Amino acid sequence: MRLRFVGSTSNQGGCPTIYETDRGTLVIQGMQVTDPATLAEARDILTGEAFVEVPKELFEFPG
Q: What is the model's pTM?
């Protein structure tokens, strides 16, 4: 899979960041959610999946 940088709301070059892939999908870089109470509210977390938190402003970048 190849990534193409789309945009970031970070001034430091870190997260949160959004990428577009050559497979027609998006990859989101953000802070991993690890709080057990929060994860208990999530549905159907499969092995290998992670929840990340990003600000809504990140989705203002065109794809």
A: 0.76
- In a 10 Å sphere around its CB, with 0-12 CB exposed, 13-18 middle and 19+ buried, how is residue 6 labelled? middle
Strand partners, 3: 21
CA distance 63 to 61: 6
Cβ neighbour number for residue 18 with a 10 Å cutoff? 21
Q: Mind listing the pLDDT tens digit for each residue in 5-46?
A: 998 888 877 788 999 999 999 999 999 999 999 999 999 889
Q: What is the DSSP letter of 42?
A: S
